Amino acid sequence: MLGLVLGLGLVLTPSTTRTRTPSPSAAPVRCFFFPHPAAAPAHVITTSAASAVVPRLRMPHGAVRPDMRQTAPMSLFSRTDPRKLKLPTAAEALPGRATRMRVTARHTVTGAALEPPFPAGAELAMFGMGCFWGAERKFWNTPGVLSTAVGYAAGLTPNPLYKEVCSGATGHNEVVRVVYDPAKVSYADLLRVFWENHDPTQGMRQGNDVGTQYRSGIYSYGPAQLAAATASLAAYQAELTRAGHGAITTELLPAPEFYYAEDDHQQYLDKNPGGYCGLGGTGVSCPVGPAARNG
Question: Looking at the domain 99-271, which fold is it?
Answer without folding.
Answer: Peptide Methionine Sulfoxide Reductase; Chain A (3.30.1060)
